[in-house]
Design brief:
The chain is of the alpha+beta class and 181 residues long. It has helices at 3-26, 54-73, 78-105, and strands spanning 36-37, 40-41, 121-126, 136-142, 145-153, 163-171, 174-179. The strands form two sheets. Strands 3-4-5-7-6 form a five-stranded mixed β-barrel. Residues 34-46 have low confidence and may be disordered.
């Protein structure tokens, strides 16, 4: 096989896989990062920085093939072409892995965990009757969101606007509070 044909095949396979991944993402095909091998997932690690993935390998092949094709056309010689193409492909592979790790850090969960409210300061929104004789409401800033929950107190009545501390979770939407001294 001639070197130029080898590099063209590598460039075609790498670019083809990247284009297919792009098209699948555009039509809602999801992430094509995981694939199945004989009934088991091929997992290369759980860290955010995965240097060995379908995207990074495809990127390596595409750039390796293109640079190798160019080097062969410019008659650099086989060892020099292979070295430069491999270096360019590996550098591209690392850059793509780094960019994908940055993308994974953008992920955030929209759910507010009610148990994170315990221990936080809150403000009484609707007065809270004394000695658990009724329920009022509080507003609290949790996970960068202002949330409203039902509240009870074991002490004296807490008027609207009073500062309180959440001491315990009674249910997912109800908390026990005490005055904040």
């Amino acid at each position: 096989m001639q070197p130029i044909l080898f590099f063209q095949i590598c460039a075609g396979i790498g670019s083809g896989v990247l284009v297919i991944q792009l098209l699948l993402q555009l039509v809602g095909g999801g992430d094509v990062e995981d694939f199945d091998v004989d009934g088991g997932d091929l997992d290369v690690g759980d860290s955010d920085f995965q240097w060995l993935s379908l995207r990074t390998i495809s990127s390596f092949l595409a750039i390796f093939g293109l640079v190798g094709w160019w080097g062969t056309a410019e008659e650099w010689g086989n060892p020099r072409t292979l070295g430069i193409a491999s270096s360019a492909g590996f550098a591209t592979m690392l850059v793509v892995a780094y960019l994908l790790s940055l993308q994974k850090k953008l992920h955030s969960q929209g759910n507010v965990k009610a148990e994170n409210v315990v221990g936080l300061a809150a403000r009484v929104y609707l007065k809270i009757p004394a000695e658990r004789e009724g329920m009022g409401k509080i507003t609290v800033l949790v996970q960068d969101r202002s949330m409203e929950y039902g509240a009870l107190t074991a002490g004296a009545e807490l008027p609207t606007g009073a500062q309180v501390r959440v001491v315990r979770m009674i249910s997912a939407n109800t908390f026990e509070v005490e005055p904040l001294d």
